[in-house]
Amino acid sequence: MAEKTLMKGNEALAEGAVRAGCRFFAGYPITPQNEVPEYMSWRLPQEGGFFIQAESEVAAINMIFGAASTGIRVMTSSSSPGISLKQEGISYCAGADLPIFYANVVRGGPGLGNIAPAQSDYFQSTRGGGHGDYRVFVMAPNSATEMANFPKRCYDVAFKYRVPSMILADGLLGQMMEPVEFDFEPIDPGSIPAPDWALGVATGRNKRVVKSYDLRPGRLEDWNIERQKKFEMIEAEECDWDGEGLEDCELLVSSYGSCSRISKSAVKLARDSGLAVGLLRPITLYPFPKKIFRDMARKVKNILVVEMSLGQYVEDVQLSVEGAVPIHFHGRPGGGIPTAEEIFEIVKKIMRK
Amino acid sequence: MKKVFEKTNGLTDVPMRYCPGCGHGIAHRLVGEVIEELGVRERTIAVVPVGCSVFLDEYVNCDGIQGPHGRGPAIATGIKRTHPECIVFSYQGDGDLASIGMAETIHSAARSENITIVFINNAIYGMTGGQMAPTTLIGMRATTCPSGRSIEVNGYPIRMCELLATLPGASYLARTSVDKPANIIKTKKAIKKAFETQIQKKGFSMVEILSPCPTDWGMTPRVALKRVQNEMIPYFPLGVYRDWESRGKKEDDVKVAIEA
Questions:
Q1: CB contact under 8 A, B62 and A202
Q2: Which of A120, A258, B89, B147 is the 20 to 30 A CA-CA neighbour of B209?
Q3: Which residue among A67, A208, A209 sits closest to B78, beta carbon to beta carbon?
């Protein structure tokens, strides 16, 4: 258990999902996530699971939709343009209250963009992504070890609330090799009883239907209001974040995912030169850990948000602190990656004022 | 009183909302009867499309899943691969199967997914109100080709059985019609054979059923049946296009199809 294995982030993600009980994966090639389907293609059959290379991302998400309707743990992965294609299917999963898990190993956009790491799919991930009123449980790992361990949490939440769940990574996390340590024992999905809504052999029970439509007047409104209660519960119960130097900092730096690793180095540079700087990093992006931001807004003089996109993540920080403290912003779009030194310079400028 | 006729146990008692003269009701009943006769009702899963038959999940007496437009074969693939003990069929119209879902149709056949597709070809988009379909006949009017389908503007209607017959993975392909009792009986036979193909794990099976849509064709049910006979069948010839049982190896089968 404590043993560390050197793995690429994408492989850690795939292995983590398998250990968390995933037994069906459908995907389509796109850089920089190709190691996920490649790994699944040989790894899943070892566990009695199934892998399909689909004809498109659209087909892949619908294979996932079908397999998920039988109550098993399923997964798909892609990168930005491919995730856009999957959004209709994800919306159907949300509308049919199906637990699914997927990963977006984000690349530079919009359009074909490039294959460099980016965080520009933040809005798409945290606001639902597809059509209709729903959210997706979103986790943002910042290491290969977290890539390996977060799928389990995603499945737990997805099945507890019957919602889609996802990991928002990027090309940096997917391609980087790091020592990986699993923090949970492999789960045998055969030991988990099938949910009472799952399709399958129906001997001795009434028929079951998985669907997202209801044309009867008022019913869809009721259904949506009922579903909204789940998201309220998720917001109350499932927030997660990590921080350092929060007790005494005057400037709070905030980033998520791979960018939080860079910000962490910048905070260390600042601390080493005697500046009171802290780091707050949300681990769940939906639900967003609003409370800790509100609390910190009362303590600090400034907040600096650093992200690898042009002002997406910063909006959630602004919504959380509601103008209580000045928020500074540094964003690098289109595959640009900030350096710790670059962030440190901005930190110094803010603190000199 | 002695009961002389009974609704199949493969269907529920929910009254169908189809228009007078529509072919869906007949096709539903035939599917229900086949499911009952094969004794697979309790392990059958219906994949329900977008279109007029979107309410199939209410009518069919087995588990069901309603999914995105055209993606039935992908949904069925996900279910069948993980639950080979289940009998999975996808019920689709022409817009669903031959337009938006063409890729899923072709690739599930190419993979020879062990699933069954019931394909209703009525040459029109029904639910949305009569727009041109990929199978709308040349000269036939639709709300998006009000002067009739023209080759110059709209190209040619797609013959799905012939197209899929070029794929070695397609194990059973038949085109039938519900225009008259004799053809309805043949349709049921074909549906049964398609389900048997799946039960015997022989791979992809599809039955294309030519079906009238009096409402969106702007015809009485009687005249609509005449159109099926006089206009549709000549362009979409009835028959078995592939049969794993009556032909030799699949490879040989491809040769035959290409040479023909």
A1: yes
A2: B147
A3: A67
